[in-house]
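Hi R.,

Here's the chain you asked about this morning:
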Amino acid sequence: APKTVNNFVFLAKQGYYTNVPFHRIIKGFMIQTGDPTGTGAGGPGYRFADEPVTRDYVRGTVAMANAGPNTNGSQFFIMHQD
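And the predicted structure, written out as tokens:
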């Protein structure tokens, strides 16, 4: 997922994720962050296309959180259970 990795690294190097809270926590499933407003509705002001996923979302997986097809921005989630 080269676009996704590039986006994540770019935002991280710019300090975008500094002090950004985990705004969505679902026990036994995942935690989500990447929205500087902390509401779950914020983002970097741009979107990029989905990249195909060919793996299961198992514990430790980091993936983009979005509002539908091709709406990736800055939000991501981490799976904390298979």
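The longest strand covers residues 30-33.

Let me know if you need anything else.
M.
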